[in-house]
Amino acid sequence: MNETGVLRVESRTDTSSQANKRLRKAGYLPGNIYGKDMESVAVSIRKDELRKNIAKYGRSAVFELVLDGNKKYNVMVKDVQFTHVDHDFMHVDFHSISLSEETKANVPVKIVGDELYEARRLLLQLHRDFIPVKGLPQDVPNFIEVNVKELNAGDNLFISDLEFPKGIVPELEETQLVVSISEAKIHKEVDEQTEDEASGQPQED
Known about the structure:
Helix content is 14%, strand content 42%. It is mainly beta. The chain has 2 domains: 5-97, CATH 2.40.240.10; 104-183, Beta Complex (RNA Polymerase Alpha Subunit, Chain A, domain 2), CATH 2.170.120.20. The chain has a 6-stranded mixed beta barrel. A 4-stranded mixed β-sheet has the order 10-7-9-12, with no helix packed on it. A 3-stranded antiparallel β-sheet has the order 8-13-11, with no helix packed on it.
């Protein structure tokens, strides 16, 4: 089971755009908690606390969310909206989940073993940044590791080639392409003199 982080949020009654602007200016984010058999709850959370916990536990982690210091929810971060200018956090949605019921999540792909690709003149193309999976929330990994160290030009990796944690099932066909390897093309630079000689044009003194 993955480690669980704790997020502290406060309920908010004023959900107007002006109120949301004031929250952001004070270092908070507006957000909502929603889930099965419950009404959506408007909340606010410190932006730095959310960023710190996502960095530590991962975007797909299960968090214990404490509302107003007493009410607790098991949640996953379902959606984060970002500003257009500086791509900063703008709004967050928490999905209240049951630890005994399967959930779905998009898990990022993490490539390892490509450190020598440039020296080997290999080019890696990643066809999927995320892989949709389902399983118990606490079993959802922070990433799916894809080791490409032993691959060569012409090799491919499909969903069927990847290893998933016990209890986690990919929501894609096994034939879906994830990674392909090709030989990097070498571009020969031709200087101006060589180009002129090839075209038969005289050089100026």
